[in-house]
């Protein structure tokens, strides 16, 4: 059996093949992903946003960073250097001679395969005379010619060449390793072992351990787990949290502590500048001894956030720290909302403790708006616009205009708006209108149904209700045009539109019935119940003398339900005549009615199945399509980072101050978005009124609240009772 031989590269030629491949595997993907090819696109994007966002802090910082940053230049230089090395190695490889060539005696003798022995001998004589060393030929070439002649003229050699590719028979299997021979040289063994040990036993474990230690400290949203636990502790401890307390909890996040985060800093000048800001801000609970609110990092972060909301000027050193704190705050507030939702779910499922109140979660949303816009809670939302100052608000809230919100400003006529804002001047007025025109105007449409029920429009107690909310985003500039068109029309048309909108709002409730129709149906049911409940009870008692009081009550309820269904279908007279017929006729009529009900239920099932399939398809499309979270840049004068327009959508019971559905963070609303909110219907029957609430996480004064009214019924229990009564009545008739 042939052995094996391992041959290392003594000359170093094959090592260049390995090195060229290795460098190519690094350089080519790195160029594709790291080449700063979007630098010009970013410049063009910033240029297109300059007219509207030119005064924003984040825009100026981004523009300055793009102009002064040398990172793209360094990336290009590193990638070009890698390509230079790769091309140099490729050129080196192309100049290397092939060391291994397949042995073919016919090629050595310049003969075609299958040549005869006479032809082989003749060619051998010619070549030997030409390449014989005594005749001045090459000795190596002559030896190859002799070997080829022997291989083709000797039967055994020829057979070995045909079977093994070698005239000498099977030889040792040779494996070439593309590494230099000095690596396995005994003289260099200690050095090689040292390098391997350092790489695989020191550097690699340290890198993996450091990455693992850092990763386990953070949650999926890159927030310290200790910070999440801190939020959960205080939200559990204080279910009803006001804005001042919420700010203290927010700024106690461990990301602001230099011991937990290297980005946070404590400067020697903080002992002078922070107390000065505290004196200017006033009462901010400095003397509170509750940890961690009394810690220096928490106090500094709280002062910087409050100074940002008050739009106070700070020193250059504190300004850098303030940008860091403000930039991190929206993500922490979103984490607080998530924690509040988790505690609410735990309270609903387990009980035993109080869930955070609705006001706490809504204060988190309001504080996010305030931090993005750099405004205090009591300030006017008009201050989000450029060139608006406190002294200008008196022109807006005067008795003549009464403009207090952005919607009021939009609804004004252009002439009145120009007259009110005449203090701005023509240039500033055009800029204000351009900014206001980019603000979002959201239209919210709701559709309520029960997907798992036979009647999707009937809300039964305890059923899972699905509210499909369709959000459509437009710009305020579109509203300007509509307002101008509406002013050209008469007051009667405007009143008609308002009445139509009011009627639509009334019909968009859980049950699509008007109040008059409900009252008429109730009156009919009462009359039919008084007339027909007693005969039904009498006939039931005659059929079965052992009917108890509970069964009689159940029979009355079932009879009432039958009459209610009959009144809804407009067949009161037919039911009255059916009650007077014989038992056999009544059974036949009931069978016909049951067949009709089965057909109706089958039709409802088909419609429900189609709706369910559409819902499943929508979810599958949502899973397959990864939507971008880049929607529209929010206009924020004092926020240090570009902020996208996002929204919170949820259902709440504002009377009980509780969440009905968990807030859904809408991060993909560019033009329109469809969101499904699910919640369990109340376990008790009766009328209920909830609210569908849409809140912005970027703007003040653009929140929307839409009422969601409905009535839950106990239909399932009535159907069970009716089946029991029908079964007992049928058995009595059979007897």
TrEMBL record:
GO terms for cellular component: Sec62/Sec63 complex. The keyword Membrane applies. Pfam families: DnaJ (PF00226), Sec63 (PF02889). SMART domains: DnaJ, Sec63. Residues 515-533 have a biased composition (Basic residues). Keywords: Chaperone, Coiled coil, Endoplasmic reticulum, Membrane, Phosphoprotein, Protein transport, Repeat, Transmembrane, Transmembrane helix, Transport. It is a multi-pass membrane protein. Signal peptide: none annotated. Coiled coil: none annotated. One of its GO terms (molecular function) is protein transmembrane transporter activity. This is Translocation protein SEC63 homolog. It comes from Nothobranchius furzeri. The lineage of its organism: Eukaryota, Metazoa, Chordata, Craniata, Vertebrata. The gene is SEC63.
